[in-house]
Fold this sequence. Notes:
Distance between the termini: 25 Å
Amino acid sequence: MTELECDAVLFDLDGVLVDSTECIERHWRRWAAERDLDADDIMRVAHGRPTVETIRLVAPQLEAEQEAARLDSGEAFDTGGVAKIEGAAQLLRSLPADAWAVVTSGTKDTAMTRLIHTGVPVPSVLVTADDVKRGKPNPEGYLLAAAKLDVRPARCIVIEDAPAGIGAAHAAGMRVVAVTMTHSHGALAEADAIAERLRDIQISRRETQAGGRLLVRIGEPRMETAT
């Protein structure tokens, strides 16, 4: 088991706190078919990035802002294929409100729809694509969340599921725990630790704040033995 101390935990949303892969891919594949683009090529880079930046990568010939606005508006209130991730709500409710945040590449409308639909608590600090000029893998979103929590970046741990998010967190000077929800171990190798599932991550408050107010443990949950 790996143990890391910190003062705040910053969570990605999709693939970490909510399972929205089916919904996201459905919208991208529909858009790709309409534009005569290879959907598989798009999905290799879309996870973890803002829509507009994905379009700039895969279809630089298109008007990225216009295309992204259409895609985002269609996805924002769609809950089809959006499901809760086991243990997400319980984990967040166990943390001090000023010790965690959500940083997502989606819009605020999309994030709020998914949080409410799955019963995941709405954080006091929610950073979305609407709040930054540059999305992941740029560190702007994670740095903004740390500033809003009044926590030094080096004292934050990020929970991510995509290479773009890992890159953003490291660029911000933060450590990263990756969950293998949407990518393989190999694709997430740059993370500081890897968990198979969110419920393999336990976060507890420390009795003394020397070294950090939170302790993050990464490993298989302990099995209760019958007596």
